[in-house]
Amino acid sequence: MHAVIKLLRPHQYLKNGFVLIGPLFAHQWDVATLMQAALAFLAFCAMASAVYVLNDLLDVEADRAHPTKCKRPLPSGAMGIGSAKALFGVLVALSIALSWLVSGWVLGFTAAYLALNIVYSWRLKHVVILDVFLISAGFMLRIFAGTIGLGIAPSAWLLLCGLMVTLFLGFSKRRAELLVLENSETDYDSAVTRRVLDDYSPAMLEQFIAVTAACTVLSYGLYTVAPQTIELHGTPNLIYPLPFVVYGIFRYIFLLHQHAKGNDTAKDLLTDWHMILAAGAWFVATLWVLA
């Protein structure tokens, strides 16, 4: 059971919180909408775990040569290949069933998420820059499921902010992977672990991180003061929780460089007290303003 839980990576379900952004910022907090949002969230949780199982199945040989991924259930031998394949099928079926209970749109977005990750794992994860855009696309599908999938019109500024923050996290992850290889005492072959790292350089990734971090703050700030946002929520005060967003981004960059974090975003967010307090303060302040 420990191997199964480790394979499913339930702590990564934090990323599926992007599904809940739509109802939160659209001010649609009625019971029916929140129930549908919860089902869509669970559908993406099941599909996300299915994707993790699939990735581990496809990357089992490469993971055995990786300094940290070699400890995962499949490369370490803690779980059999046949059991993992069966678990993948169950998770996909569960996600489809939950999605269908919400809407055809949510079913389409979860199916697109699976197809996107199959293509990503098969070939496109080795294409520099495009690999991170595909990771970001997975998050955008979550946002679409929580907006269009629930009958909510998504805000253009919020979509732009979602794109920028997920690109920021994606490029930060690549920088963290480079740091792991650079700081490892063992001479690992990046062609075996992750070939795309050969096409990235630290200087290039630092520029990508800086640009996407700045665009995240700017796009979110502009969303909070947009006339449509003020009209929808009846207040211009949504900008006041912005410092918590800025602090969280700066803290994440600090963790990346000073504490070798960034390989596992969800784990970093759940284990660093500064990130927890910043995220909690932002959520409470935002909810207070919206309510």
Do you know the CATH topology of the largest domain? Tetracycline Repressor, domain 2
Q: How many domains, in number, for the residues?
A: 2
What's the helical proportion of residues? over 70%
| DSSP strand content | under 5%
| Rough outline | globular
Query: Mean of the pLDDT scores?
Result: 91
Number of continuous helical runs: 15
Main sheet, how many strands, which sense, barrel?
Answer: none
Label the structural class.
Answer: mainly alpha
Give the total of beta strands.
0
Which regions are unreliable across 5 or more consecutive residues at pLDDT < 50? Answer: none
The named CATH superfamily of the largest domain: UbiA prenyltransferase
Instruction: Write down the secondary-structure element order.
Output: HHHHHHHHHHHHHHH
Radius of gyration: 19 Å
Architecture (CATH level 2) name of the largest domain: Orthogonal Bundle
The N- to C-terminal Cα distance equals: 42 Å
Specify the CATH class of the largest domain: Mainly Alpha
Task: Describe this structure as you would to a colleague.
- α11 (202-225) packs antiparallel against α13 (242-258).
- The protein starts with a helix and ends with a helix.
- The protein has helices at 2-8, 21-26, 31-58, 60-64, 73-76, 81-102, 104-122, 130-147, 156-183, 190-193, 202-225, 227-233, 242-258, 265-271, 273-290.
- 36% of the residues are buried.
- The chain has 291 residues and is mainly α.
- The protein contains 15 helices and no strands.
- The chain has two domains: 1-154, Tetracycline Repressor, domain 2; 155-291.
- The model has no long low-confidence stretch (mean pLDDT 91).
